[in-house]
Write a sequence for this structure.
């Protein structure tokens, strides 16, 4: 495990999946979900090179078929330490024999955690060292621990927004949407997640606050350029996820090719791109 601290905030990161496992303000409880194999066996996984699930858990690239599990393989790979200071750490994953069996493209994925004042910035840097275009999706999946039931919590979207929720059937988008009104005190409940996650594509907001009905504001997640956001929990489970995404799962009518996958990010040879979000603690 790797530990970083700025005297106020402390964070713990595992080399396995470069996964954030603890985040707390000095003297307070860890805000990250306490992993439970019987409920949800992750803490804060990194989703790469896909977000969500592929139709039939497979895709084709250049006419060849490949199998890949939901959310990709980065969360199950061991990252290498690149750099560390008292307040920051960078880990890296590159393509290897295991990844190339599922995904034939060369890549470098750097993940940097940096503590600044009351915030943790999480930056994902993707570099294409290959000779062909790199096609991928990427996402964060932080899970936050709940003390109490979900209906004791709310989300703050920084304003009032009328958006389209993209509906899901069996892990895939079914093509239907429904109107959803978001505001500065959006009440949470298990009923909202009875079928699956709430997904909003091209979010018109850049932050989501998370707090309790007693007025306590736990944190605010900021993201300036996400292509989608997912809100998810399992009804009755003591965790809640706010997920910044660049890409999303397949639709039920997807053609199964990586080249035509909706929401895919394209990166030319020898180019790099950064994807960031931050967690401000209150």
């Amino acid at each position: 495990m790797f530990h970083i601290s700025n005297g106020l905030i402390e964070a713990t990161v595992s080399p396995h999946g470069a996964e954030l496992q603890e985040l707390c303000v000095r003297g307070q409880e860890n805000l990250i979900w306490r992993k439970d194999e019987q409920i949800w066996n992750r803490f804060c996984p990194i989703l790469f090179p896909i977000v969500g699930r592929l139709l039939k858990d497979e895709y084709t690239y250049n006419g060849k078929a490949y199998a890949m599990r939901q959310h990709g393989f980065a969360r199950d790979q061991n990252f290498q330490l690149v750099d560390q200071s008292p307040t920051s750490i960078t880990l890296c994953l590159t393509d290897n024999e295991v990844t190339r069996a599922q995904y034939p493209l060369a890549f470098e994925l750097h993940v940097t955690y940096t503590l600044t004042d009351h915030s943790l910035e999480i930056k994902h840097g993707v570099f294409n060292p290959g000779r062909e275009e790199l096609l991928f999706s990427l996402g964060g999946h932080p899970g936050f621990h709940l003390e109490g039931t979900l209906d004791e919590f709310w989300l703050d979207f920084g304003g009032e927004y009328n958006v389209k929720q993209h509906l899901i059937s069996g892990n895939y988008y079914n093509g239907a949407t429904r109107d959803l009104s978001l505001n500065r005190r959006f009440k949470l409940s298990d009923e909202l997640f009875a079928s699956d996650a709430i997904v909003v594509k091209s979010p018109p907001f850049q932050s989501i606050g998370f707090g309790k009905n007693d007025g306590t504001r736990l944190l605010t997640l900021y993201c300036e350029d996400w292509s989608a956001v997912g809100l998810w929990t399992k009804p009755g489970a003591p965790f809640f996820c706010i997920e910044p995404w660049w890409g999303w799962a397949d639709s039920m009518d997807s053609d199964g090719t990586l080249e035509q996958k909706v929401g895919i990010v394209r990166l030319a040879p020898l180019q790099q791109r950064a994807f960031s979000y931050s967690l401000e603690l209150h």
Observations:
- The CA atoms of residues 133 and 216 lie 46 Å apart.
